[in-house]
């Protein structure tokens, strides 16, 4: 019996993957498998910048194996130029704001500035924020619904408090 498949197109899906500037393709490939492919399945097309991690023989061969076309922005396709950079700038701004408000992570008795740890929650904040270009959240565009967030529960709690008591 053949297994069914579900094919979908997502114009823009952004997953925030904490990695370092000098990570190699060998370190990046499992990250892509564990966070991207496990989340969405395989894409027909993937757009990336020309970072050596993504142009390496390893990831080029993985894309061939998976049947994924990897495309790089060029000066002749300005609609793809700069989108990744804009999102990276937004993420950097979110990380800076997170720590500038004193939201530090505590490891035993020491406060640490670990920028990797809040990435999943910052991704959730980004994916559940209404974007001006679509007037919808990326979660709504991807899944057709918005997840219930902790802030939704807190809003209800604070709205239920009688200010006169």
From TrEMBL:
A Gene Ontology term for the protein's cellular component: nucleus
Cross-referenced InterPro entries: Integrase_cat-core, Retrovirus_Pol_polyprotein, RNaseH-like_sf, RNaseH_sf
Molecular function, one GO term: RNA binding
GO biological process, one term: DNA integration
Organism, as annotated: Austropuccinia psidii MF-1
The protein's name: Integrase catalytic domain-containing protein
Keyword set includes RNA-binding: yes
Keyword entries, A-Z: RNA-binding
Ranges for domain Integrase catalytic: 23-146
Signal sequence range: none
PANTHER family linked: PROTEIN CBG26694, PROTEIN NYNRIN-LIKE
């Amino acid at each position: 019996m053949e297994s069914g498949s579900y094919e979908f197109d997502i114009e823009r899906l952004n997953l925030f993957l904490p990695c370092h500037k000098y990570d190699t393709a060998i370190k990046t490939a499992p990250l892509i498998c564990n966070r991207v492919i496990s989340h969405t399945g395989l894409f027909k097309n993937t757009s990336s910048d020309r970072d050596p991690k993504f142009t390496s023989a390893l990831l080029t061969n993985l894309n061939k194996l998976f049947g994924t076309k990897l495309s790089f922005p060029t000066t002749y396709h300005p609609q793809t130029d700069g989108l990744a950079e804009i999102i990276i700038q937004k993420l950097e701004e979110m990380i800076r704001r997170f720590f500038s408000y004193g939201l530090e992570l505590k490891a035993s008795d020491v406060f640490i500035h670990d920028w990797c740890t809040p990435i999943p929650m910052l991704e959730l904040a980004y994916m559940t924020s209404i974007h001006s270009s679509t007037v919808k959240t990326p979660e709504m565009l991807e899944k057709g619904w918005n997840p219930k967030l902790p802030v939704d529960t807190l809003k209800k709690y604070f709205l239920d408090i009688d200010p006169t008591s």
